[in-house]
Amino acid sequence: MNTARLRVVLRDVEPTVARVIDVPASSSLPELHELLQAALGWTNSHLHQFVTPQATYGMVIPGEEMWPEDQRDETGWRLADLGTRFEYLYDFGDGWTHDIEVLGRGGPRPGCVDGHGACPPEDCGGPGGYAELLDVLADPTHPEHDRLRGWIGNRLRPFDLAATSQRVQWVVGEVPESVRLLLDLLADGVKLTPGGRLPRTVVRAMQAHRPQWYPLDRPVSTEDNLPALAALHELLRGVGLLRLQRAVLRPTKAAGDDLAVVRRIRSAFEPNGFGTEITEITLGVLASHGPLRMDELAARVHPLLSYGWQLDGRLIDERDVRMAIAQQSPILKGLDLIEHPDLYKWATGASALSLLPGATMLADIWINDR
């Protein structure tokens, strides 16, 4: 993978907070935002912008006025469009400004190669408020010391090179093993059944690799016996990683590029959509709490959802959450995001932290808040 090496320095903050990271050279600006959040240690709780001498790029929020008025929608732009020096602004209230320099080509894989300084806690008042906070924390006799020490908790974590590099790599993403298995099985092309389903040889090969997808100890005959496989088949065709041409199903060219595979799978999860939010919170809860029964899982997920989600004109309740998670379960299993350690409990799967950046971020926050 071609990477670019960036030096990121948080302006007007002492002790200095800096990171040197390798990111995919083809990163879009939304991807770069997520990578910077992971590298610095922010929690993606506020708006952001990329600023160059020529233009400002940011998120376009339907129904909201842009600032400045000529701000460009970051969606259609990439790291290469920003030049070799630019600013990354995060949280317009606190006003965190990051000075970023593109140093050149990076190493063979993304990650963090150097850095120092703890990331300031969110909502502490920007550089000035952070300086005051550090002064209070350093003075046990200050009347606000105990209160602010309790407010900080363990959020002021020392820089950890290995952990930061791992977070960056998770945000870049990895192809789930089940996806790669199916793409490899279809590499030479297969004819579908008259009903448009995968042939028995492919179904049983996937069952051999994922026996937990079928509760009974016997070979299955059709794709529909493995809901996780059926959901995975549908998703891969929907995002253009599989194509049916002249009655033969085979992987597209994009399926040979791991970064393209991850991007296309992520495109199936609508930003800010209900299904995406349910999925990300579910994975974050399971990663931070361990295996849970469905009733326990729904009880923890429900209060974490954004306020206002409705069903048939009423606010959703825990029963709705249980049904939503159950409806999502085939594709979550198909993407190795969840698994069942026993008949009654749900747990994170092998790809739970390396496919959806939102889930990775939530898991990291909640694990460190325990």
UniProtKB/TrEMBL annotation:
<dbReference type="InterPro" id="IPR012912">
    <property type="entry name" value="Plasmid_pRiA4b_Orf3-like"/>
</dbReference>
<protein>
    <submittedName>
        <fullName>Plasmid pRiA4b ORF-3 family protein</fullName>
    </submittedName>
</protein>
<dbReference type="Pfam" id="PF07929">
    <property type="entry name" value="PRiA4_ORF3"/>
</dbReference>
<feature type="domain" description="Plasmid pRiA4b Orf3-like">
    <location>
        <begin position="4"/>
        <end position="163"/>
    </location>
</feature>
<dbReference type="InterPro" id="IPR024047">
    <property type="entry name" value="MM3350-like_sf"/>
</dbReference>
